[in-house]
Design brief:
With 152 residues, this protein is an alpha/beta fold. It has one domain: Nucleotidyltransferase, domain 5. The chain contains three helices and eleven strands, in the order βββαββαββββαββ. β2 and β3 form a beta hairpin.
């Protein structure tokens, strides 16, 4: 089983996934990266995932601002266009007090024609979740920092 986290600026959402990717349990907390007491990300991870790991989860992955400079550990951005392989290549590994490593997905970035950077952390994983959909797609991703994204 896999612990999957969407850990943003303002909130944390977590799921326990089985080998087929089905959701077996879920949790949420208003503990975004800027609200974690003392920056103790490991304590929050333990609070959310301890029961799941005791029940057999053997891996954990996180996306979102948890991989930013203000988060648990910085995962450098992958350059756009980025596919799943680019995100896998950019995973960083963080040890936890629960005896398993947490892998953090890098965000993605692009520089526009005027040299202005645009970035996302977490939304790229949501887009990959729609990967079986064929063809060119335009996504609107509402949230603390809403985004538009084009996937081809």
């Amino acid at each position: 089983m896999l612990v999957a986290l969407d850990w943003g600026t303002s909130s944390l959402r977590a799921w326990l996934l089985d080998a087929d990717g089905a959701i077996r349990d879920e949790a949420a907390a208003p503990l975004g990266i800027l609200k974690v007491p003392g920056g103790d990300f490991d304590a929050v991870f333990r609070q959310v995932a301890e029961t799941w790991i005791a029940a057999g989860a053997t891996a954990a992955i996180a996306s979102g601002m948890i991989g930013s400079r203000q988060g648990w550990a910085e995962a450098p951005y992958a350059n756009c266009p980025a596919d799943a392989a680019a995100l896998v290549a950019g995973l960083i590994e963080v040890p936890t007090s629960l005896g398993i490593s947490l892998r953090i997905v890098p965000g993605v970035s692009r520089i526009d024609a005027d040299g202005i950077p645009d970035v996302m952390r977490g939304e790229e994983v949501q887009i990959l979740g729609d990967a079986p959909a064929a063809g060119r797609r335009l996504y609107v991703l509402p949230g603390t920092h809403s985004k538009w994204a084009l996937a081809e």
